[in-house]
Amino acid sequence: YYTIVEAYQAGTDFSSDAWVTDLQQTSPGIWEAELKSGAYDLSLINLGEGFSDQRLYGIEVVGGSVTEKTIELGGKGRVEVDLSGAEAYDWLRVMLFAVGEFSQWGEYDTYVCDLEYDDSRGIWRGEVREGKYQLRITDGYAEQRVEMVVWPDTTNRKGIVLDLREDWATYEQWGADADWQWEWEIEDEWGDEEDEWDW
Questions:
Q1: Is 123 exposed, middle or buried (0-12, 13-18, 19+ CB in 10 A)?
Q2: Helix ranges (DSSP H) in the chain
Q3: What does the alpha-carbon distance between residue 6 and residue 97 come to, in Å, rounded to a whole number?
Q4: What is the pLDDT of residues 166-183, one digit of tens each?
Q5: Beta-carbon contacts of residue 67 (< 8 Å; ≥ 6 apart)
């Protein structure tokens, strides 16, 4: 893989018009560039399999000095997912998202990768950086979400009973590392009996 590190004028939301330069790799894990004094945002792309792209904001560069920024990507762990009931579906996709600040509603999660199916073992597997993730399993119509934690240099195995549902209204997390649970809105065919109807 080829990692790209781009510098943009700060606060411009990585607009192509605000691009300043690409940093050059001078040694393993080190990228450098000469920049004028000011504030910059950095975009790090293609960091390697299992690592999502990164963005760094508001890095102040002072003229006549060296500005250093260290990014700790963390170790990598292996993920194995055993889906009970997968034989009932013609097609499944298993994705990993890094959990964001408001991940309960999926607004700030970051897609990381798709897990690959290992036909010989009957599991879905992959390798990603350590951290907290949300598995999203879909057959193209319905979806199931499950949280898991990946530890470095470890095989992190998760057994899941498939229960794909199309019409979920909201869901809650029970415990730091527990599976996602759903709350269902149950309505009869004619709606709430207390509803007022205009004829």
A1: buried
A2: none
A3: 24
A4: 544 434 443 333 344 433
A5: 59, 60, 61
